Amino acid sequence: MSIRTRQAVLQLKPYSPGKPIWEVQREHGLDRVVKLASNENPLGPSPLAMEALLRSAAELHRYPDAGFSELRSALADTLGVTPEHIIAGNGADELIKLVAEAYLETGDEMIVPSPSFTEYEFTGVLMGARVVPVPLRADFTYDIAAILGAVTPRTKLVYVCTPHNPTGTYLPRGELEKLLEELPPSVLLIVDAAYGHYADADDYTDGLDLLRQGRTLLVLQTFSKIYGLAGIRVGYAVSRPEVIEALLKVKEPFNVNALAQTAAAAALADTDHVSRSRELNADGRRYLTEELTARGFTVVRPSQSNFILVRLGAEAGRIYEGLLQRGVIVRSAAVWGLPEYVRITIGTPEENDRLLEALAELG
Ligand code: PMP
User: Pathway membership of this protein (predicted)?
Assistant: First the structure.
């Protein structure tokens, strides 16, 4: 187990999410604010999930099911594995932390793409591990040779995020297979497919089919994105039963609340809502990519996700602030060391047009 040093804790930086709607309303005296900053589902939650959640509220005096058995079975049926292959968490965030707690000791190494979702690095530093960033290529695609080249005898975990946050690019199936083949068996590969439901490239895989074929990897997914349940915090990890067993040992007893378990199971069954969300996203992604390109901006392609990364150049800071003043929140990519870029979540057609109008006003 890790000896967490005080030094490791002092190194940590608090998580800084995008600005919330209420703050922009208050700061700029606005009623209507469009938030395209946190990759949420603009259609909201499934109505079936809402109904199930309200029904289960009558049982709030009871503790939740510590083993989330209903949700676990529903996920197992949907994903084509047995329940022993699945753990649910208080968001995928919690699962990222559980992986670090279960697998990292002080001095171990963990490879993460750079840039990437900041939670990976946070959990590695928290456990006193050495976090080894491997840069993406200049076009923001993965460099598998560089990842393999960074592996040492101390490497325990390798993270890939596909579709990748914050760029929207993805790791093609062939490259994921090569990575799996060439990593030493002592290294656990984690495929963060939080945005996997939005991907439509022929050679995209979230890794679940490789897992079903008996390969060892851990796939992370969430109910916060296409299922529209970010506020209630449910994610899940799928891996071999012995990996899941290790994560179950370090979780809090009642880590997924009762409302979340019920809502997630109902959301999973609402395949129409998922299809509608996927189509709305694909249309909006195409539309915004074309419109922004026509206006002279560079959009990182191909986005396989529910957001696009857009290069605004030296004016990025001014444009970001100008959008806030006009009630449109996007995410500055400065947190990922990309100050000339912003990450824009695909919204409803009205929200996408609001963004384009606000950009036009800014000149
Ligand atoms: N992985 C990635 C790549 C993400 O972008 C996010 C959320 N922003 C998560 C995991 C965590 O998702 P959750 O809301 O389930 O904690």
Answer: Amino-acid biosynthesis; L-histidine biosynthesis; L-histidine from 5-phospho-alpha-D-ribose 1-diphosphate: step 7/9
What ipTM does this complex have? 0.99
Q: Please, which contacts does 117-122 make with residues 24 or more away whose CB atoms are closer than 8 Å?
A: 117/161, 117/165, 117/192, 117/194, 118/15, 118/335, 118/336, 119/15, 119/93, 120/96, 120/159, 120/192, 122/12, 122/13, 122/15
Q: How many angstroms separate the CA atoms of 100 and 95, rounded?
A: 9
Query: To 5 degrees, how large is the angle CA 259–CA 263–CA 264?
Result: 115
> Do residues 227 and 194 touch, judged by C-beta distance below 8 A?
no
126: nearest Cα among 101, 158, 103, 151? 101
Q: How far is the CA of 92 from the centre of ligand 1 (A)?
A: 6
Helix spans in 173-240 (H):
173-182, 208-212
Q: Please state, in angstroms and rounded to a whole number, the distance separating the CA atoms of residues 98 and 305.
A: 25
For residue 94, which atom of ligand 1 is closest to its CA?
Answer: 16
User: Which of 41, 87, 117, 336 is the best mutation target for the ligand 1 pocket, counting ligand atoms within 8 Å of the beta carbon and taking the most?
Assistant: 117
Q: Which two tokens stand for residue 291?
A: 């419109």
Q: Which residues pair with 237 in a beta bridge?
A: 87, 220
Tokens encoding 273: 């809502």
Closest CA to 268 of 232, 238, 223: 223
* 109-114 and 328-329 strand pairing: unpaired
Q: Which residue has its alpha carbon closest to ligand 1 atom 4?
A: 194
What's the whole-model pTM score? 0.96
Segment-wise mean pLDDT, segments of 10 residues, the chain, 363 residues: 66 80 92 95 97 94 97 98 98 98 95 96 92 97 98 98 98 97 97 98 98 96 98 98 98 97 98 98 98 95 96 94 96 95 98 97 89
Beta-bridge mates of residue 188 = 157
CA 362 to ligand 1 centroid distance, Å:
31
